[in-house]
Amino acid sequence: MSSDKINADKLTGGAHSPLRRKLLLGMAALPAIGLLPRGALAQALPTDAVNTTKLAVTDSTVKVGILHSTTGTMAISETGSVQAEKLAIAQINEMGGVLGRKIEVIQEDGASDWPTFAEKARKLLVEDKVAAVFGCWTSASRKAVLPVFEQYNGMLYYPTFYEGLEQSKNVIYTGQEATQQILAGLDWVTKEKGAKSFFLIGSDYIWPRTSNKIARKHIEMHGQKVVGEEYFPLGHTQFNSVINKIKLTKPDVIYASVVGGSNVAFYKQLKAAGIDLNKQTLMTISVTEDEMLGIGGENIAGAYACMKYFQSLKNPNNEKFVAAFKKMWGGESVIGDVTQAGYLGPWLWKLTAEKAKSFDIDKIAAASAGIEFTGAPEGYVRVHENHHLWSKTRVGRARTDGQFDVVFETADLIEPNPFPKGYQ
Amino acid sequence: MFEGYSLAELGSIFAMQGFAGLILFSVFVLMALGLAIIFGQMGVINMAHGEFMILGAYVTYLCSNFISTYAPALFPAYFFIAMALAFLASGALGMLVEWGMIRFLYRRPLDTLLATWGLSLILQQVFRSVFGAREVGVVLPDWLMGSVAVTDTIEVPINGLFVMGLTMAITIVIYAVMFRSRWGQGVRAVMQNRVMAGAVGINTEKVDRYTFGLGCGIAGVAGSAFTMVGSTGPTSGQLYIVDTFLVVVFGGAQSLVGTIASAFTISQAQSTMEFFLSGSTAKVLTLLTVVVILMLRPQGLFVLKVRR
């Protein structure tokens, strides 16, 4: 699907009156009565059978929403997710769509503003009656739209690794929750580097604080020590004082969850202060290939990142995915963990709809558990009953060219556990 | 937190901490100088100050790409070229903005707040459309990276020293221009009494335009220098704007000396507290202190004595 097409959808989507839409839907349903069957599958699965709740499904199309920030501060991070979701949708359409119906995208801009996210989510569900929404990035935006999705019974595919402590019938979490991402990495650094002391540093909001709480519990459970725990306001740009504190406390591992523009300042100043990341172990859970672009590979080379996906992952799925992504969005583009998780959303939804033989939200929600996606770039994934994904965790080592060398991956898929006992 | 450390170790940590404070001080002065001229001297509340800085940062980015592709031999020195270009680019845009927008608003200072805020949003979106939403990485020449080892245990970041030197140089130049040149005299005259300055033959429109351009140009240089310590993205300017206004208002808006004194106070307080307390607490305490002092002394630390 070309981006022109998507834009046109977006432009005209808001102008139609609900009445006109109903009329159009009615007209579009006419062929189903038997005048002109379109495509074998659509005929086998008539619209009123796969869509009993008046979603925007016709004999030949199904509408979905993409809801990310393309303006405002979060556009930096969310652009990759939008691109991945559009790629997945284009690929699915090439294969014939979902249940014989082509996917049409209605894209809305959350504008990095949480009330706007809620408003646009309501628009997508109530006016556009989309069958699924792929979107949100920050926890704040997800928390803002969650009541909307639960009230109007929509389906959200949420791509970001996040702090956990949430589970909803109306959300599929395609990124990792905190324990999946954190625990394996800590165990690895303990075993590999003999780490005994940790310095936790993060941006001051829910995700780093919850993640560090889990990390601290795990560290202390194993008899190791946290020698410092620091948070800085979002957008903080001066880290020289805390770097001195790190020098004073000499931790075996710096454990970083700094995000956004602060990230760049933190690594540049770390390097300028003479901390060589080839000698000082640093593990981050917030730097993906996307962030590396801004930080500059030379400033962070040697650091370890712990997440489920790296662009450099070697498997046939990923090679195909990276090539297709670059073909669609340009050879310069990089793919981070969340971008890959964004790519999973449309595929998981397609597989679920085909298993449920329906677009109905309740049937999709019920059929989601156990859905397997063997074509995932990160390798095989499976949806857990708690609507999170079983996935492997990997540790990558940052290179100067902005990519990671994968140095470790867990042998098995890790079970998602959004409400970890003993870690709260 | 100091048990188990030798006196020498503590000494070197405190020395490095002192440098950290000085570097923060330089950063504050550098980002506030341009605004001190525009807000302090002209009374224009320029909410787009951060975006002028980021324009300078993007010029540096383009310059580093251009030079590393076409004239790699010049790369070690490219930063100086980039800063000069950043000054010109931000200054030119500043003059354009003054001509197209600000000059209609001199009598309505509060409206400049809204107008320049709108301008900042427009500029952010322009950056986003031109350079993409993601942050860009500015590659530094090798000599600007790493640190100088003063002793075995004391290490000082080179880019910090560079910012300190640059700040000092710019401050001296500004001082000379504003207080030792005929042009600066004209600027000060216009700010004190626009009508009278016009009456004695000063071309006030021209003075306004160049003053605004100078302020924005300095913002551009600051942005260029900050590519060494911070991020370069469409909205990075927002990271600096609050601190910048804080420094200028706290110092007493109309006094350049006040700006420097206030930058020193705030930076030392913040960097010391960050070391002993946590980062967020330090910020809260700094802001609280500033609020209390401004309640007691609303005009800021230093006041220009003018007969009104």
Automatic annotation (TrEMBL), chain A:
<protein>
    <submittedName>
        <fullName>Urea ABC transporter substrate-binding protein</fullName>
    </submittedName>
</protein>
<dbReference type="Pfam" id="PF13433">
    <property type="entry name" value="Peripla_BP_5"/>
</dbReference>
<dbReference type="InterPro" id="IPR017777">
    <property type="entry name" value="ABC_urea-bd_UrtA"/>
</dbReference>
<dbReference type="InterPro" id="IPR028082">
    <property type="entry name" value="Peripla_BP_I"/>
</dbReference>
From TrEMBL, chain B:
<dbReference type="InterPro" id="IPR017779">
    <property type="entry name" value="ABC_UrtB_bac"/>
</dbReference>
<feature type="transmembrane region" description="Helical">
    <location>
        <begin position="239"/>
        <end position="263"/>
    </location>
</feature>
<feature type="transmembrane region" description="Helical">
    <location>
        <begin position="77"/>
        <end position="97"/>
    </location>
</feature>
<feature type="transmembrane region" description="Helical">
    <location>
        <begin position="212"/>
        <end position="233"/>
    </location>
</feature>
<comment type="similarity">
    <text>Belongs to the binding-protein-dependent transport system permease family. LivHM subfamily.</text>
</comment>
<dbReference type="Pfam" id="PF02653">
    <property type="entry name" value="BPD_transp_2"/>
</dbReference>
<keyword id="KW-1003">Cell membrane</keyword>
<feature type="transmembrane region" description="Helical">
    <location>
        <begin position="158"/>
        <end position="178"/>
    </location>
</feature>
<keyword id="KW-0029">Amino-acid transport</keyword>
<keyword id="KW-0812">Transmembrane</keyword>
<feature type="transmembrane region" description="Helical">
    <location>
        <begin position="275"/>
        <end position="296"/>
    </location>
</feature>
<feature type="transmembrane region" description="Helical">
    <location>
        <begin position="52"/>
        <end position="71"/>
    </location>
</feature>
<keyword id="KW-0813">Transport</keyword>
<protein>
    <submittedName>
        <fullName>Urea ABC transporter permease subunit UrtB</fullName>
    </submittedName>
</protein>
<keyword id="KW-0472">Membrane</keyword>
<feature type="transmembrane region" description="Helical">
    <location>
        <begin position="20"/>
        <end position="40"/>
    </location>
</feature>
<dbReference type="InterPro" id="IPR001851">
    <property type="entry name" value="ABC_transp_permease"/>
</dbReference>
<feature type="transmembrane region" description="Helical">
    <location>
        <begin position="109"/>
        <end position="127"/>
    </location>
</feature>
<keyword id="KW-1133">Transmembrane helix</keyword>
<dbReference type="InterPro" id="IPR052157">
    <property type="entry name" value="BCAA_transport_permease"/>
</dbReference>
